[in-house]
Amino acid sequence: DPAVFDFLSSQIAQAIQAAAAALRPSAIAAGAIPTRGLIQNRMRPDGPVDDTLRLIALWEEGRREPMAVIADFAAHPTTLGAWNRELSADYPGVLARAVEAKYPGSVCLFFAGAVGAQAPVKEGEGFARAERIGTPLGEAALAWLAKAQPAVAAGLSVRQQTLRLPPARVRLGPRLALPAWLSRRLVDDDATLTVVAVGPAIL
């Protein structure tokens, strides 16, 4: 629906303009917290998983509560499945709700990590599945925020590079992959890597 695209684009542009007009000194902290039992490799049961919750928080100068928290986790937000016909933020919404309830003046943003083959462990029924993943992530984020030591966020640097990728193999399931010649026709052979550094935080 083009109206959805236009609405989101307009809101993002307005948010950037508002932020640029309200710049002020701030402090930043970054951390990484290991988790267990929340994420699995959806392609191979013995495959690698990225089960680290990464956090970045920003404090306005002179305030004790964070004004923004960025949470990054690699599990696809697909705990609810196709049966759900309601708008939902899935497990990231549970995480954000916990942070914003503790710090009402803050905004909690969720970034999907390198999701790839990373899937949430689905246990329970209905919306309890989202709670099962989001609740421990929220608790871990709050525990880290309580001990975080923010430092002045001096400077911003950005680097960008285009990388050549190895030949793609498109998978249609755990055991079925397209031939290499067909995969190459469907997938780009390069990718753009962008790195943004703000104080101790690297995105």
Would you mind describing this structure in some detail?
This protein is α+β, with helices and mostly antiparallel strands. The protein has four helices and ten strands. The chain has helices spanning 2-21, 90-102, 128-147, 180-186, and strands spanning 26-34, 39-41, 52-60, 68-73, 107-112, 118-120, 151-152, 156-164, 190-198, 201-202. The longest helix is centred in the N-terminal third of the chain and has 20 residues, at 2-21. The model has no long low-confidence stretch (mean pLDDT 92).
The tally of strands reads 10
H/E order of the elements? Answer: HEEEEHEEHEEHEE
Separation of termini? 31 Å
Largest sheet: 5 strands, mixed
Q: Nearest-angstrom radius of gyration?
A: 19 Å
Which descriptors would you attach to this protein?
single chain, three-stranded antiparallel β-sheet, 203 residues, alpha+beta, five-stranded mixed β-sheet
Write the layout of secondary structure elements.
Layout: H1 2-21, E1 26-34, E2 39-41, E3 52-60, E4 68-73, H2 90-102, E5 107-112, E6 118-120, H3 128-147, E7 151-152, E8 156-164, H4 180-186, E9 190-198, E10 201-202
Parallel strand pairs: 4-5
Antiparallel strand pairs: 1-3, 1-7, 2-6, 3-4, 8-9, 9-10
Question: Short summary of the structure?
Answer:
This protein is of the alpha+beta class and 203 residues long.
